[in-house]
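Much of our argument rests on the idea that a fold can be written as discrete symbols. In the encoding step, the backbone of a single protein was reduced to a row of integers, each denoting a local shape. We regard such an encoding as a compact summary of how the chain folds. The record that follows shows the chain in one-letter code together with its fold in token form:
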Amino acid sequence: MVMNKEDIKKLIPHREPFLFVDEVVHIEPGVSIVAVKSFEPGEFFFKGHFPGHPVVPGVIIVEALAQAGGILVCFSCGNEFKEGLPALAGLENVRFRKPVLPGDRVTLQARILRGRSRMWKIRGDAFVEGVKVAEADILASLFHSG
């Protein structure tokens, strides 16, 4: 493990119950990241999505990919984000290939396709036991709060 949850919280603003990256297992600054999220049966969204047949909502999987991409960008750029944080600006080519179920451990892979100081395009792929379950091209930009 390269980063645990506490390390991740130093890079991105997300917190439970909306932090969807448990650990980073590999990171190559400016290039790519491999992270993991285990979806435990007690996750808050399983009660309503769907009762009797719980499935991780696709938007949560995409959010996990976006958070992994945000960790990569923040780690790669270091102190450049004192003025703001990367925020989701758009999604392209989103596909859901298989459902993610309670107890699944999802491997999140993201790589920077293009990046400048204020805008990035990141390719994200999610896998369960080596099988691709989702993919997306994620657009992120620098968000200024206040």
